[in-house]
Design brief:
alpha+beta, Aminopeptidase, seven-stranded mixed sheet, GNAT family N-acetyltransferase, acyltransferase activity, transferring groups other than amino-acyl groups, GNAT_dom
Length: 187
């Protein structure tokens, strides 16, 4: 990570939330419109992104990487599945601005902070879904100890083709003991 790159929590005050959500929406936009990295087909507005940030920042985590006042990317944890038995598992995602310098360590810094925060908040397992092919994302996850748990074949139709989704998993905290109090779920 560049010495000028910082990772911070998304701001939840009204002005900070609006600015952070707009920056995240701008980072996400080209992934939605030009890639199959996400199966979302309509880019969320700043207001819609703000709802997502608010929903997951407190219960899971929503982090931004910045350098020289520019948002380089963001990472967040969210609910894996709605049933209560899954409440100790978080789904994780990271997006880097397509015009941000590469190989700065921003993605690694975001994921390190995110995984640490989720473990501190009581989550036991992190799950990632990666549209294939995506060697960079697979490599990032492997570097953080994620292992492949399966491939969902032809589950997403986008950009005129079927796409597979690789599922990867990582333990955040030992699960040998019964869980304590459950992590807070989003409102």
């Amino acid at each position: 990570m560049s010495s000028s790159t910082t990772v911070r929590d998304a701001r939840l005050d009204p002005a900070g939330l609006a600015a952070d959500a707009a920056a995240c929406a701008a980072v996400y936009f080209p992934y939605v419109t030009g890639t199959a990295a996400t199966f979302e087909e309509v880019p969320p507005s700043g207001a819609q992104m703000a709802q997502r940030v608010e929903a997951y920042a407190a219960s899971h985590a929503w982090l931004l990487a910045e350098a020289d006042g520019m948002v380089l990317g963001y990472a967040y944890g969210s609910s894996y599945r709605p049933r209560p038995a899954y409440r100790w598992t978080a789904e994780v995602s990271v997006y880097l601005a397509v015009d941000a310098p590469r190989r700065t360590g921003a993605g690694r810094a975001l994921y390190a902070a995110l995984l640490e925060r989720l473990a501190q908040r009581g989550y036991r397992t992190a799950i990632a879904g990666i549209t294939l092919p995506n060697d960079a994302s697979v490599g990032l996850h492997q570097a953080f100890g994620f292992t492949e748990v399966g491939v969902e074949r032809h589950v997403g139709w986008k950009l005129g083709a079927w796409h597979d989704l690789l599922r990867m998993q990582r333990t955040l905290a030992p699960d040998t003991e019964p869980p304590g109090s459950a992590p807070a779920e989003p409102a």
